[in-house]
Amino acid sequence: MFWHIFTYRLKCTVRDVQTLFWTLAFPIIMATLFGMAFVNLAGLDVFETVNIGVVNTDQYKADTALNSHMDSVTADSDDPLFHVTMYEDEASAKTALTESTIAGYILETDDIHLYIRSSGINQTIMKGFLDWYQQTLSSVENIIKDDPSAAMGISDILSENVTYIEDAETNTNKPNMTLAYYYGLIAMTCLYGAFMGVKEVSAIQANQSPQGARLGLAPVHKLKVFFSSLCSVTLVQYISILLLVGYLAFVIKVDFGNQLGYILLASFAGCCMGVSFGAFIGAVLKCGEGLKTGVVISLSMIMSYLSGLMSAQVKYQAVKSLPILAYINPGNLIADAFYSLYYYNTYERYFLNVILLFAFSVVFYLVVYFVMRRQQYESI
């Protein structure tokens, strides 16, 4: 009986073009659009040396402190902060700025002035450097003014150039700002499995579908029918998610790491979460299938939005503002499971997310069981 119902519902699910579109075709279309949109984003975070001009005035020549700091940030290295071009007069610097040869130029007369044509990252770097220099110089002057004997000690401290931050790699994988969108897309696909869950519940409810009415008269327990059909749709949904992950990995070239077993487990946990969520909505709500589907779409999109599907910053701000969302939002749990595999060397966070997903699935199925067990119909 199990295999008969399983095979029957499997054929029905595969032939349901509308549901397969939203659970398979639509996510792949979205993944393709993401890949086209993000193709050039990988190189945006590469730092390039800023071309800056300096007008060689008498005041600048006499300012040994500024000369020393400019030399320190233009010293030979792999990535110097500035590439400095000296100009004998301001007119030459203005011409270079107009021709975009330099991002800006420094002119020191009675004070230090920075001239730019437009705002941007390079201009912000130049202004930040000059602000830091002037703040440091002002602090040193105030200290010496109050205690002239401290001049030698300050000079020694500044010459040491102590660094209090040490770079250390926690993982071989480099940060990638686009992963939030792809992981959010996987979360949305998993949650879209709720469409199948709603359909399976409606298919065994006598007041929701003609098929449910016929099952109500059949000499077989409806929960056994539901379990068989549930296994079939879970299999279809799991294959859909694996096809999406495979498409992202081999066509879009999204890096999921090299831990295939954990990826399969996270995909299965998300699959169970989506189908059970749909079954929960289908069993609890006392309305037609169309309205239940509308509720599923609304809740799925809200949870996907909070998991970073539309904007990576939304995910961080939501969890920062309401930390409990990191543990009760299934979309966030699914996305974080893939995040933890990519970014972390340990598996504590990964298993926490997976266990919570399975726990939510069990709770939803228990609710479905107790609700449907008590359903009785006086007439069909």
How much of the sequence lies in strands comes to 5-15%
Based on the structure, what is the oligomeric state of the protein chains? single chain
Largest sheet, in brief, is: 4 strands, mixed
Query: Biggest sheet: strands side by side, in what order?
Result: 2-1-3-4
* Molecular shape: elongated
Structural class: mainly alpha
Low-pLDDT sequence parts? none
Question: How helical, in percent, are the residues?
Answer: 55-70%
Number of domains: 2
Q: Give the number of helices.
A: 17
Average pLDDT metric: 83
Compute the separation of the termini in Å.
Answer: 24 Å
Count every beta strand, where a strand is a DSSP E run of 2 or more residues.
4
Protein described:
The chain has 380 residues and is mostly helical. It has two domains: 2-41 and 177-373, no CATH class; 50-160, 3-Layer(aba) Sandwich (D-Maltodextrin-Binding Protein, domain 2), CATH 3.40.190. The protein is built from 17 helices and four strands. A four-stranded mixed beta sheet has the order 2-1-3-4, with helices on both faces. Strand 3 (104-108) and strand 4 (112-116) form a beta hairpin. Helix 9 packs across helix 12 (260-284). The longest helix is centred in the middle third of the chain and has 29 residues, at 222-250. The chain is elongated, with a radius of gyration of 31 Å. The mean pLDDT is 83.
